[in-house]
Amino acid sequence: MKARTLWHNKTRSWIESDNLKEPKSGELLIKSLFSMVSQGTERTVITQNLSSGVAERMAIPYMQGSLMDTFTYGYSLVGEVVSGDESLIGRRVHLMHPHQDYLRITTNDIFLIPDTVDSKTATLASNMETVVNAIWDAEINLGDKVLVMGYGLIGGLIATVLSQMPGVRYAVVETDSFRRKILEESEHAVFADTDGIEEFYDVVFNTTSNESALQRALEITGDEGRIIELSWYGGKNTILKLGADFHYGRKQIISSQVSQIPFKKQPRWNYFNRKELVFELLSKLDFTSFISSEITFEETPEFYLKLRNNEVQHLNTIIHY
Fold first, then answer.
1. What is the CATH code for 135-264?
2. Can you tell me the distance from the alpha carbon of 255 to that of 233, in angstroms, rounded to the nearest whole number?
3. For 55-185, where are the E strands, in sequence order?
4. CATH topology of domain 2-123+291-320
5. What is the pTM (predicted TM-score) of this model?
6. For 171-217, what is each residue's pLDDT tens digit?
7. CA 155 to CA 207: how far, in whole Å?
């Protein structure tokens, strides 16, 4: 059978069709239902704003080509099993895979989606793994004051989870008027910028990929406070001024990234039960506002042109197959 795959190089994106072999023992044939575009990461990847060493680490399962040349890429895919293990046929699954309409994959790479989570919401699973790691890394305590800088997808998901944590006071900063309008329809406390912020925070999450925001996070984090840096800067240089109260205030800048379980959690947590936690959160909290834009697979080349040119405003975009 034929499978269509989205390909990229530095200047354009296109769809190619190729033969897909029937699954053998231990493999499944998956029909894609939806996949999510990780807009910040994929913009950095398709513009090749990264070094060759980082490109090797950014490779994902089932990717073809090289991130420094021509390649396939993706993040979070939801599909239905159509061939392979008979006990799994018809089941919905989640996995990391490039954007493609039919997949031949190893059975061990799937996670079965519970009936309590619809297919579109399930595309948020990979980002929710990032959020879980970030909150673990932050070690938030009762009574903490928390600030989320940036209301993109990651910032929005963090704020939603924080809203359910008793005894935690939090607010969100978003400078973009389009995103702030979406944010103001929620129940989150909102700042248009940080100029008027005079209090100090115990924890600040920076999701902006902006060094000025990271600098400001240092200034409004209290002594012994923690800045959780979730931004991926790719090949950009980042300059910080650390000569003020960073040193004497014993402030921490903590890198939070999804590919590893935080060290303190490793005795009791692994990738599988972290994914179970993610789907429990997706089933209990309302994330419908984060499914803000949907395109067909055929529309992806045009969409990625807009993404290259930084012309995409939506919090999140999912591909419908």
1. 3.40.50.720
2. 12
3. 71-72, 76-83, 92-95, 102-106, 111-112, 145-149, 169-173
4. Quinone Oxidoreductase; Chain A, domain 1 (3.90.180)
5. 0.93
6. 999 998 888 888 878 888 888 888 878 789 999 999 998 999 999 99
7. 6
